[in-house]
Amino acid sequence: MRRKSGKRSKAGTLRGSGRRGGSGIFRNWFSGNIFVVMLLKLFLVLVLLFLSRVMFYAFNLGYFSSLGTTEVLRLFIIGVRFDLSALLIINAPFILMNTFPFRFRENVIWQAVANSYFYVINTVALMANFGDTIYFRFTLKRLTADFFQYVGVGGDFDKLIPQFLHDFWYIAVIWFFFVALLVYGSTRFRISSSGSGKKGSWLMFAITNSVMLVIIGLLTVVGMRGGMQLRPISLVTAGDYTSAKNIPLVLNTPFSLVKSYDHEGLKSQTWFRKERALAEIYTPVHPAATAPFKNYNVVIIILESFSREHIGSLNHTLDNGRYQGFTPFMDSLIRCGMYFDAYANGKTSIQGIPSVLSGIPSLMNESFIQSGYASGKFTGIAGLLKPRGYTTAFFHGGTNGTMGFDSYSRLVGFDHYYGRNEYNNDRDYDGKWGIRDEQFFQYTAHTINGFRQPFAAAFFSLSSHHPYTVPGKYANIFRKGNLPIQQSIMYADYSLGEFFHTIQHMPWYKNTLFVITADHTSEGYYPYYQSDIGQFAIPLLFFKPASDLKGRRTVVAQQTDVMPTVLNYLGFDKSYLAFGNDLFDSTSTAGNFSIHYISGLYGLIKDGYYMEHDGNRCNSLFDIARDPLLKDNLVSKGVPAMPKLELFIKAYIQQYNNRLIENRMVVDEGRK
Fold first, then answer.
1. First to last CA, the chain
2. pTM for the full model?
3. Would you tell me which of 13, 150, 536, 589 could form a disulfide with 106, CB atoms 3.0–4.6 Å apart?
4. DSSP assignment of 85-133
5. How high is the pLDDT of residue 453?
């Protein structure tokens, strides 16, 4: 009588004749050996990870449009190294369960547990890759573990995830198709007793499979490390192969999440042994002003995603001089104030707010607010001005708790926080982020009007944020542009204009210094605004009615320059700490510059150059004026300015890292 294929033994282990689809010793071993089956399943996942990178590229083709076909293929091939590392890290338990040198590893229940883990972890990995295909457009980097901290501090994701699924449903469909391929393909590979070495003595089985455990274990460790080099590959390793702009094409999201989870904190640096030598190159300590203090009111307005690209008066050359922009009020206000072409210090709101209000950038894989260093001593413009009798308040129309802004504002000295709860009228709630800009700007104006002078207030807008909706009555008034955000930019600009129209008749208006900037940029459309520096380009305007603050300055500016510029303009009479410059002071020894951190690389704009540095060496150097799209890497061409720039960035990193680690983020009056 023929024995039925697939019969189970008394022990409950999987058995089979190996005749499925063919016969012979090789066929039996290839289709049934537990090690080969495991490798085939892992290889299938590797292929799917690679294909998901192709999809990532296809859906973000505009961002990577400057890359030639050869370069794209090169980065794809390099990316396999990172795919393999991520694959082995997340599947390590599955590999271990299939290489135990014991026969129970083929038990039905044991295999069910192993395969369940395999399907779940790789389904999640593919979901992360495909989710990042869209989320990347907002951060321009692969998702890292700080995302989960961001969710934890209140990101309104319970409302936003359904919106994302609605807007980008096709990504979910493609992900589901990939998961179906994973399940279907993996179930084609089955172990069998004849191919798994179950026959023979127990001793021979134990010896043979112990050797296989060691071999597979060593190969897995090498693969997880990304090779035999001294240190395992990390996010920064991708910078060895390409510029920061293209690093997301080399990495994959599971790798980024794993490598940034529970990562080491900042590393103390000792490039400069003596504090005096370090301070001569760069110091974040600003001395007390010598001019008399002027108790002007201060209102800092931070506009959501207000890239410089959206402002018509700043882009006369676009579209052969026909570019209109989307900010008619901002265009008019720029003509009345002191304007700087500035750069954001990060790509998210939670990075931008402390840069503007505390002079502290987030030069790490997580934002400063979310890091453990935020539990140390630090301050901001509100905390410094409060002892001078200032009333201080932070305004944001979002749901209270969003991104931890309420907690941060208290930490840095804001007496009052006004959010959606305080507004207390959900008829003006946009259903996603908070109170619409038009109404909340007006609420802010009238609330400030009740403050005792002098006061320092910060306002952070929200309407120019995905899903970029505008109230229905404006749908046919504000025009659309090349980017989905631009209609909502017009609405935010209109709301800003109405705010100024309301306050210009209030008694405190003429005694107030206004600062207007952005928290970060939006997705770029024109080539420059997709470049490594253009993707950080934001406006920065200082405006005081009936003052001499007028003109357009050409010096490099950044978000962390806001606090020192405001304090020195007021004549603040105590020393303080901020990682930026007073933009009105041309005597700074460090000179004007901008710095950011993305995908494991520091980006420095200074002295007409843009440098990318991994914390140990310079990866790339570009002449901005001659090469604004950053195509000609000068790092190996002996540029005379390069050693000086590298010395500066090391001094900056040492000051930043060591002060955060040692909790020296406020000035010790006894040591200054």
1. 94
2. 0.78
3. 13
4. HHHHHHTHHHHHHHH-SSGGGGBHHHHHHHHHHHHHHHHHHHHHHHHHH
5. 97
